[in-house]
Design a protein that fits this description.
Elements lengths: L1 H25 L6 H11 L4 E2 L7 H9 L6 E4 L16 E3 L8 H14 L4 E5 L27 H7 L5 H10 L7 E2 L1 H6 L1 E3 L5 E3 H4 L10 H9 L12 H16 L3 E6 L4 H8 L6 H11 L4 E4 L21 H11 L3 H4 L4 H11 L26 E6 L2 E6 L22
Parallel strand pairs: 1-5, 2-3, 2-4, 4-8, 8-9
Antiparallel strand pairs: 6-7, 10-11
Helix pairs in contact: 1-6, 2-3, 9-11, 13-15
Length: about 425
Amino acid sequence: MFKFYCFHFLFFLALLISPNILFLYRSGELSSLPSVTALQQASGAVCLYGTALHNDDFAYKLESYSHLQPDIVALGSSRLLVLRSRLFQHAFYNAASGTVSSLERERQMLDAILRMHAPKHLLLGVDFWWFLPTTSRDLAVPFVRFATSHPFRPFVWLMQKKVPLSTYVSTIISGIPSGMCRFGVEALVNARGFAPDGSYYYTSLITGPKPNTDAFDAIRKDIQQGVWYFQHAQHPDETRWQALLSLLEELRVRGVDVTLILPPLAPAALKAMQSVPARYAYVQELRDRIHALPVASIDATDPASIAASDCEFIDAVHMGDVAAARVLKNAEKIPALLSSLNTQAIDSSINDAAGLAMMPDARLTALPETDFLAIGCQKVIRSRIGDRRDEVQWSRPRELNPRPSPYHGDALPLS
């Protein structure tokens, strides 16, 4: 009798979850990383990998990198994820990831990359909070490709209305729409994910509805309280500083030209930190130490140094496309980098899309950028036609947008 009930229970369970498994399969969630990255590189388009199931950034980046031999590589945390290949003249890959959350993790990723191919130039991102004594030194990279809960996850998304029922049904019946190169539910539903060059698109966030509160309110509280990335300290952790020096020396010996990048904070975040300067003395000391190194560096910590506004940020610590172009504009002062930069694309981004967080791209979405930070941003795109400049006000909001946490721009809202 027990076997009889078990058989019927398993049979019923299989019937229950079989549509979910088919949905996950047709959306590309069950595709292997080698097949995803190979198809991305062969597509020649903005082909996104955006999983809502797997914690596989590290493995994905290494698999994607294995298909390439780029001249220029960007490596750092998620704060560098919007550096894109169109801003460079030579072969570029963005190996940055939210998984790279400390110097130790950065070193781990770099070692894996160098075993495959050493680039000519490395843009090495450094976050100031990596030099807090409390920053995790954990080297265990999370990698969860499949779990027993995955076949049930679509039920949760449907109940929470994160996946429209029409998308669920049409994907089961027909798969991903023709002409759309997407792998993963996040890419399919929200047009969010990694592009073939390793950069990340935050499409649904940037085209989403205006929230009810100022997006920077939570950050101001964190800064006052000294929590998360904004813990208070007087001096950089000396062990971490020595680890950075050791890493730079090894890269010098290997003949890799390095440019250190201190990514910008949103003006609102920096202003809040400057209101309590004594609590963040370690940040200025770290900046001074980096300036004194015999290594090229771009210190964009102060967004005023690149003329970036709050409206050009995805959140308090993640810059958008235009702010990234402004960072690379500063890189034009570095002789070793100048010939590798696409100065025309950089200037076009700054001149024609100032105030935007994302360069418009019809291949990703026809939806306009909104005031998704709720800080009064006027989203205007300027297009040059001869000497005439046209302005088009963008105002149409997206109906549904799952929002990430206040300053984790690479959070996956479906997961």
